[in-house]
Amino acid sequence: MKILVLNCGSSSIKYQLLEMTDEQVLASGSLDRIGQPEGEFKYSSISQEKKAVKVSISDCEQGLDLILSYLINPKDGVVKDKDEIAAVGHRIVHGAEAFSKSVIINDEVLKSVEECSSLAPLHNPANLKGINAAQKFLPNAIQCGTFDTAFHQTIPQYSYLYPIPYSYYDKYKIRRYGFHGTSHKYISQIAAEKLGFEYTNCKIITCHLGNGASITAIENGKSIDTSMGFTPLEGLMMGTRSGNFDVGAMLYIMRKEANPGEKIEAILNRSDDLLNKHSGMLGVCGYSDMRDALTHAEEGDEKCKLALDMYAYRVKKYIGSYTAAMGGVDIIVFSGGIGENNVKIREKICSDLEFMGIILNTDLNEKVRGELQEISSHDSKVKVIIVPTNEELVIARETLSLVLGKLKDR
Fold it and tell me: For residue 123, what pLDDT is reported?
């Protein structure tokens, strides 16, 4: 069975076509800068070298049409006809409290996803456009949705509620939702399997560290706490996001920098822009990419050194707090672009945690980048492991499960 996985953003589409009999990726790629004069389309398949071409794509529908044209192209394609694609698995960012697992998409689901759009205005509307386009071009395929927030629906109420008037939860559902759930679920399962732990009987802390970053405490196979909250802004220091930040300090800045007679909407938009796009690593040292910060830190840039220390310190604090929340930890998992490849950051995070039973194999840590590998010392009580994430595979697997269940019920 062939399944197409789509991750449709406001200006981009990432895609993979998988043959699920052996989970082989037949084709994959991306389409960037949708709606701009010059975008870029990337395509690679099992039979062709990678291609990158400049294109002008106005919207998601036109973008998916382009992707499908490559998939069925007699020269570069991997299927003879679109009807060979049995199902489409869509990444949907926000499912709020409505979805605790992947679902087959119908009118009721679409309505609920649209209702969640106010919680993820940059993501859910784009996800919906992707679903609508797939329904148009692949009318015979079963459409399924996997939610970033679903894995975190097991977090207990005392953890997901904020200490503000309860009425705001009743009225607006203000609470911690968490994100990167598909990644946290996958890397925790792979880590437990690789290290010989029973997934439903161990304690895991997963560190998804990329330009966006989050940490999750997973106890006996269930998420019990996660660093991102009502939005992906909360939690760790990130590439351009502040992470945890005193709301009072933000109010102080807003009052100080407000122009006479300026409308509140303009002040709020500027503040949102500051915290999401100009803070984090970028705000502290001028570089949002960890690789640039490391290079300049090695050349003596003091602000880059400070930014790296701030980043690692905050990850370390979460590891300590989540260990306390679970009453111990068996496995620490690193994933994402930074977690998988940045040896210095991993070393900084794990340093001085020997009292918790975390001992890094520094020689092995120096060598390993982007591969599934344990990097803890043989005498470390807590296992430390790198697991490259694969959210597309999780979405494809869950889509397959839904499709087989539907076929069985017929």
Answer: 87
